[in-house]
Amino acid sequence: MTIRAAADGSALGNPGPAGWAWYVDDTCWAAGGWKHATNNQGELMAVLQLFRATAHLDDDLHILCDSQYVINAVTKWMPGWKKKGWKKADGKPVMNLDLLKDIDAALIGRKYRFEWVKGHANHPLNEAADSRARAVSEAYQRGKPIPSGPGWVRNGDASPRPPLEQPASNGTVGATSTGSLSAEPTQPVVVGGVAAARAAKKAAAAASEAPSLFDFDEPQDKPQAASTAPLTVALTPAQRDRLAALARRSGKTPEQALADLIP
Q1: Do 145 and 196 share a domain, yes or no?
Q2: Is 59 a catalytic residue?
Q3: Is the pLDDT of residue 212 over 80?
Q4: Is 255 part of the annotated catalytic residue set?
Q5: Is-catalytic flag, 66?
Q6: Which of 113, 147, 175 is a domain's end point?
Q7: pTM flag (> 0.70)
Q8: Contact by Cβ (8 Å): 85, 101
Q9: Which is the catalytic residue, given 66, 102, 165, 255?
């Protein structure tokens, strides 16, 4: 069988608050974004997340896309870029390299084809993806909750939620693994860079037993450098779900969301 889906991106200001979305129907779609990214990054991420959401399926993908940049990058230019060490014909580095490499890896073993559709021309699937991507960029602009959608849910079949994404320090967009938010109870979450002044801690016994995730000891009298060994915390499934939701709303990684809880 063939999955027919639209993928689209949005950026207010380009770059600016940005969103991505893929859409199959009103019960099967996903969206996300960043506080600051470009439209092309949103377009690429929408395609990448569609491949990731359907990675557990054998179905072909028919991807509707209004970005000729994305279609050409994936279907025409990428092989040449790879041969040149991910450089363009003029020798300059390829833009959005991390996203393109992730897409290249996601294509392995997949059957797919792209179809260009004109944007803002009342194509039902394209309009649905566009409106959801824009809703995310507007949510980031206004500081509102991010409408992330149900994800891949069709005929009782569901895939894991996609990884949270964040702009990397060099201006590209990079994926941050959320493997620590799996369903197993008391799976550790490692938070790097938390000051040793917040050292000893206890995991909350259960979500209903404490108003917050952790109980920390009082800070030490002598402050220490911020660059310290990672802090490992055991979370219940309910706590991990709340942490994932908090991270999505704030546009941060789970690690960053945890660290920001410390004043």
Answers
A1: no
A2: no
A3: no
A4: no
A5: yes
A6: 175
A7: no
A8: no
A9: 66
